[in-house]
Amino acid sequence: MAFQLPTFNLICNIWRFGVPTTDPPVAIAACNLAWGRRVFSGDTATDPLGLALPSMTLLLPTGSDIQSDVDTNGSPDTVEVPAGSSRFYTVHYVDYRGAGFLNEHLGAVIVRIPGGGPIPPGGPILTETVIEIDAETGDFLETE
User: Fold this and answer.
1) What is the residue range of 60's domain?
2) Which of 20, 35, 50, 111 sits between 20 and 30 A of 43, alpha carbons compared?
3) Cβ(108)–Cβ(94) below 8 Å
4) Strand, helix or coil at 121?
5) With a cut of 70, which residues of the chain have pLDDT below it?
C-alpha cells in the first residue's frame, strides 16, 4: 500500500513576530492535527530547564509559510489550531515529511501556550465545513 498525502481538513492562523490577540495573522494555511497511522518517534520539545513539554504534530501542505525558531533566529511562529479556537501553540520544529515522494508535506512540532486564550465552553467550536485543497499546489479550491 502506498503512502497517501494527509487530508488537510482544518485551517490554522500563523503569526510571525506578532501578537495573536491583536494583530492579523501573516498566513492562513490548511492543516491537520490527526496522528493518523504514525509511529510516535519522540517528537518533543523542552523548556528552559530541559524538561520535556507535551507536543503535537501539525501537518501542512508543502509550501505553507510556517517557521520554527531555527528559521527565525530564535523567534518562532505562533499558530492557532483550529483557526478561531483560541488554542495557541509555539512552533518548535518544521521539516519535510515524505520529501521527494507523492505524499510530501510539512510536519511541525508545536507546543501549547498555557493561557493562550479562552476556550469556549465545551471546547473549540467545530463546524462541518469541508475544505478542498489542490493536492499538487496546496491551494484552496472554491466550493459551492
Assistant:
1) 10-36+44-112
2) 20
3) yes
4) coil
5) 1-2, 35-53, 115-144
- Check if the beta carbon of residue 110 is closer than 8 Å to that of residue 54: no
Q: In which residue are the cell numbers 518548535 written?
A: 92
Report the SS3 class of residue 140. strand
Q: Is residue 129 part of a domain?
A: no
- Total residue length of the chain: 144
Q: Is residue 138 part of a domain?
A: no
Is residue 139 assigned to a domain?
A: no
Provide the pLDDT for residue 127: 47
Q: Considering its fold, how many domains does the chain have in total? A: 1
Neighbouring residues of 4: CB distance < 8 A, sequence distance ≥ 6: 103
Longest Cα separation, the chain: 51
Rounded Cα gap, residues 9 and 20, in angstroms: 22
User: C-alpha 73: how far from its chain's center?
Assistant: 20
